[in-house]
Specification:
Distance between the termini: 57 Å
Number of helices: 20
CATH topology of the largest domain: Rossmann fold
Largest sheet: 6 strands, mixed
CATH class of the largest domain: Alpha Beta
CATH superfamily of the largest domain: P-loop containing nucleotide triphosphate hydrolases
Structural class: alpha+beta
Strand content: 15-25%
Number of domains: 5
Number of strands: 24
Length: 543
């Protein structure tokens, strides 16, 4: 048996780089992954140990919109290697992946704090302690936390030792009793492709007993009979594969019929079902999941159950929205429950100053925060929903748009600003007028621009704030927006391409693309960003 270890962690925290340092294998197999410098789909690697055995690794993506691909990898692992960058610390997907691993009952693992060469010993120790506290709330409590730098190699030997210990713990738990039958085999397909001259090939994690070349298998669902023509493990052809990662050249089925989600098995008891059993667990401390739990009243659950029993799709859809408060459709549109819409309609206008205004991004941010108090949505989805709510309030006359500002209906600005502050605002705007602006906080301090003046610049449409410490002069950002839209119109735009054209770094390119995606100017696809539903609206592009 080969133990399968999955990676977990936030985007750009160094999971694939760490695997490359450990195994010498680049798990980013797709050309787009190498262009963009990020894992999109599940990748694979293996490590040869000194005793002749091997460890399999499943490298999963860390981006919040690729959580489905993460689950594909995490669903068939024995243990986990959680990766956290020392310069960044635990972030959104760090916590989300921990919750998913907790739900999957993965309780064997090791945490690795990477990029220690950048962050230094003190920061690395601080992050390691924070990771240990997070692990203590999950099934991974007590797992070792190691500091490693894939760049200079420090800590890699200690990590290999920890991985061997991890392997031994898994094997001790899963070893069959003496004389016991190894049982049947199953392999959940996670990749399928065609090899010229050989035909269809599938890969996955083999579970149960060993699988021999020539074995007869069933494809489930569908109950199609196929044969294992050839088996490879770690790139070498074998007569039989033990549990672990395997590739199978299959006969008896067209390649087009094979895809992720199907299962190959010789177990007659394995079948398909249209029912899913779910166990609702108590939410972990400090998690937003509690928002959703508060909506799970007996009345709402009973309404949904009645609609499902009656096969009333329309009523069931409405009941799901009522139960969760928000439902994301397949096209990405967010549908909010009537009580959520009514609450925002009542709260948002009264939250604006009676004799003042807020910038449009500030109002959207306000709505996003209030929305996330009521329903469980990730930040990107909540931001899109908040934008739609604000637009609806403006159309209904509950809010009024005055240039870059949003006000209560009928109010008009009439204010004067100290000339010294005006000069400081001019200095700050000039300093932020580049494709790679310096940090906002330090730059504002150097320019003598107080926080209230920064808010006024944002309100007046002179600054565009993307992150707490990342802002652009509005004229510069309009040019960057137009440039990104032109590139996306010509073909799918990747972060690497935007980085190269603007002469910046991946951090700036990702921040710009995520902002344009939230606002619907661009839309992310697997091939890259393309024009979004609001790309043709000049007013949206200019904001």
């Amino acid at each position: 048996m080969t133990v399968v270890i999955g990676t977990a962690g936030h985007i750009d925290h160094g999971k694939t780089t760490l695997l490359r340092a450990l195994t010498g294998i680049d798990a980013d197999r797709l050309p787009e992954e190498r262009r963009r410098g990020m894992t999109i789909d599940v990748g694979y690697a293996h490590l040869a140990l000194e005793d002749g055995s091997k460890l399999d690794f499943v490298d999963v993506p860390g981006h919040d919109r690729l959580i489905g691909n993460m689950l594909v990898g995490a669903g068939e692992i024995d243990a986990v290697m959680l990766v956290v960058a020392a310069d960044d610390g635990p972030r959104a997907q760090t916590l989300e992946h921990l919750e998913l691993l907790d739900a999957l009952a993965i309780d064997v693992g090791v945490a690795v704090v990477t990029k220690t060469d950048i962050a230094g010993p003190a920061r690395s120790a601080e992050v390691a302690a924070a990771v240990g506290r997070r692990l203590a709330e999950t099934t991974l409590r007590g797992s070792p936390v190691l500091a490693v730098s894939p760049v200079d190699g420090s800590g890699l030997d200690e990590l290999r030792t920890a991985l061997v210990d991890l392997r031994d713990r898994v094997l001790a738990r899963t070893a069959p009793r003496p004389g016991a039958s190894r049982g049947t085999s199953r392999l959940a397909i996670d990749r399928s492709f065609t090899v010229k001259g050989r035909g269809a090939v599938v890969t996955g994690t083999l579970r149960g007993g060993p699988l021999r070349r020539g074995s007869s298998l069933r494809l489930v669902p569908g109950d199609v009979a196929i044969r294992a023509r050839e088996i490879q493990v770690h790139g070498a052809t074998v007569d039989a594969a033990e549990p672990g990662r395997a590739a199978i050249n299959v006969a008896g089925v067209e390649a087009a019929a094979l895809h992720r989600g199907l299962v190959l098995t010789d177990d007659p008891a394995v079948g398909s079902s249209d029912r899913l059993l779910v166990r609702l667990a108590r939410p972990l401390p400090d998690r937003a999941r509690g928002v959703s739990r508060r909506r799970q009243t007996p009345e709402r659950i009973a309404i949904l159950a009645a609609a499902v029993d009656a096969s009333d799709a329309v009523a069931a859809d409405a009941a799901r929205i009522g139960l969760h408060g928000a439902v994301v459709a397949l096209d990405g549109a967010v549908r909010l429950a009537p009580d959520v819409i009514d609450a925002l309609d009542g709260e948002v206008p009264s939250s604006l100053p009676e004799t003042g205004s807020l910038s449009l991004p500030a109002v959207r941010s306000l709505v996003e925060r209030r929305l996330r108090r009521r329903v469980t949505l990730d930040r990107g989805t909540a931001a899109r929903a908040a934008s739609d709510v604000v637009d609806g309030l403006i159309r209904a006359g509950r809010l009024e748009r005055n240039g870059p500002d949003v006000t209560r209906p009928g109010w008009r600005p009439d204010r004067a600003i100290d000339p010294a502050v005006v000069a400081a605002m001019d200095r700050l705007e000039a300093a932020l007028g580049s494709a790679a602006p310096p940090p906002l906080t330090a730059t504002a301090r150097a320019a003598g621009c107080p926080p209230a003046a920064i808010r006024e610049m944002e309100r007046a449409g002179r600054l565009v704030l993307l992150e707490p410490d990342l802002a652009y002069a509005a004229t510069t950002y309009r040019d960057l927006t137009a440039q990104a839209l032109a590139l996306a119109t010509a073909g799918p735009l990747t972060p690497a391409a935007l980085r190269d054209v603007t002469g910046t770094s991946r951090r700036y390119a990702m921040a710009i693309l995520e902002d344009l995606d939230r606002r619907g100017i661009l839309r992310r696809t697997e091939a890259g960003h393309v024009p979004g539903p609001r790309s043709a609206t000049a007013a949206e592009v200019a904001r």
